[in-house]
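**User:** Hello, beginner here. Are you able to go through the protein record under this note? It all follows right here:
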Amino acid sequence: MDVQRAEVHRLELAWRTFLGAPGPLVADRSAGGAALHLAFREMEASAIFLDTRRVTLQC
C-alpha cells in the first residue's frame, strides 16, 4: 500500500509540475506523469460513479 501511495504522490507532483511549468521543457518532462495522473483520476471517478449508481439502484 505504501508503494501505491508513493506512486500516486509522484503522479500528483508531476501534474502540479506540468500545470506550473515555466516553459515547454519543464512541461514536456512532466507530461507523461501528468497524463498518467489524469488517467488515474478518470478511473477513480468512474469507480466512484459506478459504486454510487449501484447503491442508488439497490434502494
Summary: The chain has a mean pLDDT of 89.
